[in-house]
Write a structure and sequence with these properties.
202 residues, alpha+beta, Porin, eight-stranded antiparallel β-barrel, 59% strand, Outer membrane protein beta-barrel domain-containing protein
Amino acid sequence: MIQKIIPFILLLFFVLNVSQSLAQRYGTAVGLRLGSNDFSRTIGITAQQRILQNITIEGIAQSDFSRNTTLHVLLEKHRPIISKRFNYYYGLGYSLGWEESNIKNPATMEIITTYGNTTNGIDLIGGIEMTILNTTVALDYKPNFNMSGREEFYRGQIGVSVRTVIVKSKVQDKKRRQRAREKRRKNRTPLFEGLREKFKKN
């Protein structure tokens, strides 16, 4: 499965990197994420917040309600494929959780599984998303590289997310411009304001 997914993502990045315009139709989006790998099937909450023009921060909390529960924070860059409604993204982040771990014993040919291991690691992510009718649907692949707490160094996960747009990008941009204008107004010197009022009277 991994051998099939990674070349696809690399090819997608190569072909679509020719587009350099800005992406995203939303500022804030919240919803559900379904994840799947060789170890578990999870359901979780995902939230994305745009922090720069084409950069978002995403938080994911997911669990299989049995052996694996993880938390993830990811910084992601978005680029359009056709328009702002359809784009691809990639990024990296940090994860922590409580997971199962499988230890192989070569002498006895046994696999010993332990549960409740406190883990932390590094995430990568690559995906595509489409926004229609204030709803964002995304498909991603999220590799995880374990730093501590788990025997397996690498685990990959395919995820499908459906998010509701809470704040649109144009609304967020408008508020940002208003804050910038207000900041410039407050930074004007009293002398400048006095001269301005004097010229208005004349």
